[in-house]
Amino acid sequence: MSLTLYELTGNYQQLLELADEADPQAFEDTLNALEDEINHKAENIAKVIKTLEAEAKALEEEKKRLENRITSRKNKIQRLKDYLQDNLEKAGLPKVKGKTFIIWVQNSEKVHVSDESAIPEQYFVMKRQLSKSAIKEAIENGQQVAGAEIVKNKSIRIR
């Protein structure tokens, strides 16, 4: 049975702890064998990561394609509604009763803004958004920012 990368790493660490007590040749042979196994497992995991990244990219592209189809359908729906309304109004028919649907032209109101720059500030809603780049810059320049800190971390890179 093949060991997991986690198990191999544990064995590797145990072997390193026993370095002073083991026969030098046996130690080196075992160390090389474990390194080969770890390299093999790491490479296989990297292959899985690359496959998943490719699948994620394909799904993103499919998502964009579907979003375009949704937009197209919504535009078609609006054009058909406009066409239906226009023709019902021209025919003087405010209401049509069919076998399946009742269709009518309903009065409604909405605000149309022709010049946003002329609207007073009181009618604007400001969105509060955190600028992590500004926080990072301030901390790097020696300022204290309450509730924030720069955290160093590591990540895997695969070429």
Shape: elongated
SSE string, helices as H and strands as E: HHEEH
What structural class results from the helix and strand content?
A: mainly alpha
Q: End-to-end span in angstroms?
A: 30 Å
Helix count from the secondary structure assignment? 3
Percent of residues in helical segments?
55-70%
Task: Report Rg.
Answer: 33 Å
Number of strand segments: 2
**Main beta sheet strand tally, sense and closure:** 2 strands, antiparallel
Q: Which residue ranges are poorly predicted, with pLDDT under 50 across at least 5 consecutive positions?
A: none
User: Averaged pLDDT, please?
Assistant: 92
β-strand amount: under 5%
What is the spatial order of strands in the main beta sheet?
Answer: 1-2
Lay out the secondary structure.
Layout: H1 5-17, H2 24-91, E1 95-97, E2 102-104, H3 132-140
Antiparallel strand pairs: 1-2
Helix pairs in contact: 1-2
